[in-house]
Amino acid sequence: MRVPLNWLSEYCAPDLDTQQIEERLTMTGTKVETILRHGAPDTDNFVVGRVLSVEPHPNADRLRVCSVDTGDSSQPATIVCGAPNVAAAQTVAVALPGARMPGGIKIKDAKLRGVASAGMILAADELQIDSDHSGIMALDQLLGDAELEPGTRLADVLCVGTDVFELEITPNRPDCLGVYGVARELHAATGAPLAPAPWQDDLGSAGELDAATVSVECPDLCPRFTARAFNDVKIGPSPLWLKARLSAAGQRPINNVVDITNYAMLLTGQPLHAFDLDRIAGSRLTVRRAREGESVTTLDGTVRHVPADTVLIDDADGPTSIAGIMGGERSEVQPATRRVLMEVANWHGPSIHRASWALALRSEASSRFEKGLAPEQCVHAQALATKLMIELCGAKLLPGTIDVCEPLQQPRTIVLRRRRVRSILGMPVAGERQAEILQALDFQVAESDTDGEPALAVTVPAVRRADVTREADLIEEVARIHGLEQLPATLPARRGAYGRLSPEQKLRRRVLDTLVGRGCYEAVGWTFTTPGLHDRLRLSADDPRRRAPTLRNPLSEEQSQLRTTLLGSLLDVARHNSARGMADLRLFEMGRVFVAAGGETGVVEHVSLAALLAGQLAQPTWGETDPPVADFFAAKGLLEALGAALRVTLDCRPEPQPFLHPGRAAAVCCGGEAIGWLGELHPLVAGEWDLQGVAAIELDLDRLLAIAAAQEHGYSDVISYPSLSQDLAVVLPQEVPAARAVELARAAGGDLLDGVRVFDVYSGEQVGEGKRSLALSLSFRAPDRTLTDADVVPLRERIVQALEELGGELRA
User: Fold this and answer.
1) Which residues pair with 757 in a beta bridge?
2) I want to staple 349 with a disulfide (CB 3.0 to 4.6 A). Which of 97, 127, 221, 372 is the partner?
């Protein structure tokens, strides 16, 4: 929401500059996202002028040479102007040489077609007051004051430029969706005086309204509906001050009646809607739920087919508005309108939110109603609109007010104990200061006593009814206004309790430490994903990972499903980094994945762990100019490190995956069950993310940790006797995995075989086609003696025999 500083200052004007006001608002929870500048960068050299004479330009048919009194006693200024409506005796807005325009252009003395021009006579759009560029602003007509003295600072009579706060209003604070609500926050935060509420004096009256009738058939969705009628309305442009405020707040001025509804909404936070009373069929409005197949032509000229249960306002001819979202074209205010019915209603927030998303139609009104406004706010906006309709439209207010209202909730009173404030905040706050803060926020405060302890009885205002419901909420109000930065750092009360990590948490931390120790960076991706992800990963139609749960109310089409794999989010992160010159990556993510299934919940979820390697695994050096790159074996090394950290055996067996490179993919098994996959990404899949040379792992972390937790770990003494090492080379068929050869060698070597590792692989003419040579390093060790060759020879022969069963042949 945009709040112009000059408008805010009308109700609360602390002696602070813009940056200091921004800091106070942000520190008290009303976050200022950014500070914009609307209009001129500064107000210098903008003055009121009076046109003394207008002469034709000697060298241009469409230009006029004007003599303008700008308050300079020496002589009038000569200004060349192209506006068709410039005339003698007009009071105008003038930018003198040195003035900086909203676009940053600096006005200078210039010659236009041979005639010197010392400044510019301004149109409304040139100060970003309006979009009208048909002529210059005649201030004596638009401001209704012909006695403005030439030379008067233009900023004293008109908004030349103002800072604008762009606020992030949280859903629990709809009271700050209006300028006056923000002014109250600023008043509480700074102590600066707060002007009376602009709706304080209501010119309207209660009682029956003869001009129209209203019936509400769904009071659960429309807790309150108020309306007033006006005759003799004169439709026309709004005054400059109103246009300037609307423009600065991000609204486009249209006409005085529509501008009044927008102005009142921005000031009070409560949306309004103006009907042309003569175009309401039967002079009757009915609030009801939509029926199947109904449609409404809205103010933007679009025919919208509304879903059932959307709240509609209709007249004798059918639906005329979508309640709380947008009015209808059939009853909108037009230049010929003479009678207006001003509607101010309260709508059920979740219903408005649901209908707005279903229609893909968000408006200023719907964004406010969906946050839950109080029914009491209706009369605030109605009183303000009534005053402005009479002042700006010359309207005649008809007696009576339609007010169809459910019983209003009684104000809630909460006891605030001083001891509790001190306990929660860790510091005492004087009772007088607590009362001062709460009264500044429009709470009613009275002294109270609870079990002999001084306290405050605090009555919650209607606009904070949904947000402040208990004592802790009042303490929060006190803390944020008193200053969260003043709260001391204290330890929470333990009350004899202590905590420690669960076994599962310890294992998770061991996983994290292992990956970080291997140079990996943790990524956190969206739980939501796009439906097109599965096609990009080349998943088949029957792949379980295609069964992604679909959200009923997604943020967007690109985030309309829950993810079934972590690979997509890691690839998104990798592409983002690669596009910015960071192609060498080691990433991992730990998060939930979801698969649609039957049953009551319809969704099965578990925690997965995924890692991704891309590019070079080390930085090039003078000694190693071409370091290794990410491949299957680099990922397998990362997997083995995880297994060692968790003290479990993670085996790999060849198994294709649609998104992995053929022949460079494997299933990861632990405890005899498959818990994930490992491999190099298929080049076509990697190309979908503009990547190349990517290896990845994904494991079911819940199952892996369950297996690790169930393992019984024993310890053995450190063997002080030296090991005896022997090497052997065996030629095996190409399709036999090296892991299978190592597994058989371990089994055949018995207890004395301390370790087996592959230290060389050779394929070529010397071993024949379809075969390869594996060089194994065997390490033997005994716990009670130093082994001799005689001890090892039979073991070595058993190992060779076991390898021969795989089709192996000892290589000379």
Assistant:
1) 777
2) 372
Centre a 10 Å sphere on the Cβ of residue 336 and count the other Cβ atoms it contains.
9
pLDDT of residue 599: 60
Q: What share of the chain is helix, strand, coil (3-state, %, to 5)?
A: 30, 30, 40
Cα 274 from Cα 377, distance rounded (Å): 17
- 504-508 long-range CB contacts below 8 Å, 24 or more apart? 504/705, 504/709, 507/646, 507/705, 507/708, 507/709, 508/590, 508/701, 508/705
Is the predicted pLDDT of residue 145 greater than 60, yes or no?
no
Q: Which long-range contacts (CB under 8 A, 24 or more apart) does 513-520 make?
A: 513/645, 514/641, 514/642, 514/645, 515/588, 515/611, 515/638, 515/642, 518/586, 518/638, 518/641, 519/586, 520/586, 520/587, 520/588, 520/611, 520/638
Helices and strands (H and E) in the chain: how many: 20, 38
Cα–Cα distance measured from residue 357 to residue 347, given in angstroms and rounded to the nearest whole number: 16
**Tokens representing residue 451 in the block:** 């079990």
- Residue 146 CA to residue 43 CA, distance in Å, equals 22
Q: In what order do the strands lie in the sheet with 660-670?
A: 521-522, 585-596, 603-614, 694-700, 673-681, 660-670, 650-654
**Each residue's pLDDT tens digit, 701-744:** 999 999 999 887 777 778 888 999 999 999 999 888 888 888 89
Name the average pLDDT for the chain.
91
Q: Is the model's pTM score more than 0.90?
A: no
Q: Which amino acid is at 173?
A: R
Tokens linked to 39: 């209009």
Q: What Cα–Cα distance (Å) separates residue 151 from each residue in 116, 389, 455, 595, 676?
A: 20, 33, 58, 73, 79
**DSSP bridge partners of 126:** none
